[in-house]
Amino acid sequence: MDTSHTSWLLAALLQGLLEWLPVSSSGVLVLLGLPYREVLAIHLATSLGGLVYLAARRSKRLPRLLIGWGLLPLVAGAPIALILEDTAASLPPSTLETLTLTLYTVTLLALLARIAARTKHSKPRMADRLVLGVFEGLAVLPGVSRSGVTAAYLAARGLDPRIVTDAVIASGVVAGGAAGLYELLAHGAAMDPIMFTVTLLASIASAWILSSIGERSATLLSIVIVAGILASMAAHLLLV
C-alpha cells in the first residue's frame, strides 16, 4: 500500500502516542501500510522518548530502572523473541491467532482476578523481572501489545501502580531500542527524520499520560489496561 506524507506523519504520531499504552502500536502502523522492518526501526524514537521522560522524572533511579526492568528482562526474553521471529513466518495463521489470543486471555484473567481480590500491594521480586522478559519475548507475536501484556502481568502481581508504569516504560526503552538498532544495523531499515521527531515527542507525551494514570489510582490503571487488552483482542479478531 502506498502511503502519502500525511499518512506517514499520522503513523509517527500514533506510534508515539500508543507506545506506552496497552494497545499494539506496531500493529496499527502495519495496517497503515508501513513496512514491518521500518515499524520496528522506529522503536528507536519511542525508546528515546521514554528515556527522556525517565531522565526528567526519575533521574535518581534511572540506572536502577534501566538495569532492573530493562536489561534483566531483555536477557530473559531475547532468546524467546529470536526463536518466535524465526518460526512465526512458517506457522499457520490459525496457530499464531491462537497463541496471541491465549496470551491476551491469560494476562487479562490474571489481572481481573487480582482486581477482584483487592489485596495489598506486593513488592517486586527478581522473578518478576525474568517473567516480564518472557512476556516481552512473546510480544513479538503479531498483534500483541508489549506494554499491554507486561503492564497486565505486573498489575496482576499487585505491584504499586507507579512501579508498574515505570517498569513498562523502562523495559520498553531497552527492548524497543534493541529492536530498533537491530533492524537498522542488520537490515538497513530507513527512518525519516521528521517521522522520527514526531514519534519522539509523542512518545514523551504518552509516557507522561501513562505515569499520570498510575499516580492517580491502581484501579484506574487496571481499567485502562483491561480496556486496552480488550480493544487489542477485538482488533485482532476483526483483522485476522
TrEMBL record:
Its EC number is 3.6.1.27. One of its GO terms (molecular function) is undecaprenyl-diphosphatase activity. The chain crosses the membrane at residues 36-54, 66-84, 96-117, 162-182, 194-214, 220-239. The keyword Protein transport does not apply. Keywords: Cell membrane, Hydrolase, Membrane, Transmembrane, Transmembrane helix. The keyword Cell membrane applies. It comes from the Archaea. It catalyses: di-trans,octa-cis-undecaprenyl diphosphate + H2O = di-trans,octa-cis-undecaprenyl phosphate + phosphate + H(+). It is found in: Cell membrane. Belongs to the UppP family. This is Undecaprenyl-diphosphatase. It comes from Pyrolobus fumarii (strain DSM 11204 / 1A).
